[in-house]
């Protein structure tokens, strides 16, 4: 009988530096059964463990975009391709891509919130038949904090994508000034009837006000999905670290329909 608390060792295949503080770790993970929006618990023996969202995956690999912010991540950043990470998962509910089929898909993400939606955007990039089109808004703090440069270029150039890149501060070619939510007004929601789905990921305050901005332009809240980057610990609904009211984010989330999420904003 497998021990659900026991992580397994997997080899790092590549490390892609995104910013001064963030890198994407490509990890060997054969026969993966992962849903877009799920997370893993990543650990190193005698150091610690932390929940990390999946930023991309294939049939044989999984990618984690990690920020260097503490004891565990400091040690992870000292690793190199060929070294091992210990992981368990995937955990939680992902985005219901099957229900997005043949719809207009809107993805609005801010900062590191782009990481949990990256695999979803890449799915629709490579499978245009699965949607009518994609409206993507990705906002970053400033030029030094932009992530996934190559992917952003691909989203901008894809004929079925309508991509807006924004910076809260500073200037950069191809980016507009201001918060991501400022450009919700450019999305033609009122032309779509019921054939659309909206994904919003970022800090809780960003998700709250972006959802309100969408609804100001006619979006019905049952069409909105969000993802909580909440501190999960056990990922099995036992420790209570991620609990909001009576909801365990690690089990029922991290992806929630907004109709549920609006009661969890804390």
UniProtKB/TrEMBL annotation:
User: A single GO BP annotation from the record?
Assistant: pyrimidine nucleotide biosynthetic process
Cofactor remark:
Binds 1 [2Fe-2S] cluster per subunit.
Q: Which residues form a coiled coil?
A: none
Record-linked PROSITE patterns: FAD_FR
- Gene3D superfamilies per the record? Nucleotide-binding domain of ferredoxin-NADP reductase (FNR) module, Translation factors
Q: Locate the FAD-binding FR-type domain: which residues? A: 5-97
Keywords noted in UniProt: 2Fe-2S, Iron, Iron-sulfur, Metal-binding
| One Pfam family, short name | NAD_binding_1
Q: Which residues bind [2Fe-2S] cluster?
A: 234, 239, 242, 250
* Keyword presence, Chaperone: no
Instruction: Identify the CDD domains for this entry.
Output: sulfite_reductase_like (cd06221)
- What GO molecular function annotations does the UniProt record carry, in alphabetical order? 2 iron, 2 sulfur cluster binding; flavin adenine dinucleotide binding; metal ion binding; oxidoreductase activity
The cofactors named for this UniProt entry are:
[2Fe-2S] cluster
Q: Which domain of life is it from?
A: Bacteria
Q: What is this protein called?
A: Anaerobic sulfite reductase subunit B
């Amino acid at each position: 009988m497998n021990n659900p608390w026991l992580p397994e060792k997997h080899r790092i295949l590549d490390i892609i530096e995104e910013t001064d503080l963030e890198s994407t770790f490509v990890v060997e993970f054969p026969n993966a059964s992962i849903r877009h929006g799920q997370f893993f618990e990543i650990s190193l023996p005698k150091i610690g463990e932390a929940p990390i969202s999946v930023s991309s995956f294939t049939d044989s690999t999984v990618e984690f975009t990690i920020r260097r912010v503490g004891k565990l991540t400091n040690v992870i950043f000292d690793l190199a391709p060929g070294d091992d990470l210990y992981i368990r998962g995937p955990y939680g509910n992902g985005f219901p891509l099957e229900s997005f089929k043949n719809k207009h898909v809107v993805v609005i993400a801010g900062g590191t919130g782009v990481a949990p939606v990256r695999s979803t955007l890449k799915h629709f990039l490579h499978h245009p038949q699965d949607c009518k089109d994609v409206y993507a808004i990705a906002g970053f703090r400033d030029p030094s904090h932009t992530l996934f440069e190559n992917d952003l270029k691909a989203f901008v150039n894809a004929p079925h994508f309508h991509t807006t890149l924004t910076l809260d501060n500073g200037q950069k070619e191809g980016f507009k000034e201001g918060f991501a939510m400022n450009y919700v007004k450019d999305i033609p929601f009122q032309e779509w009837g019921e054939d659309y789905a909206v994904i919003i990921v970022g800090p809780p305050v960003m998700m709250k006000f972006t959802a309100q901005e969408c609804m100001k332009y006619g979006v019905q809240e049952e069409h909105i999905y969000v993802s909580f980057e909440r501190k999960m610990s056990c990922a099995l609904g036992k420790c209570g670290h991620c609990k909001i009211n009576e909801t365990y984010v690690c089990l029922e989330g991290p992806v929630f329909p907004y109709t549920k999420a609006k009661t969890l904003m804390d």
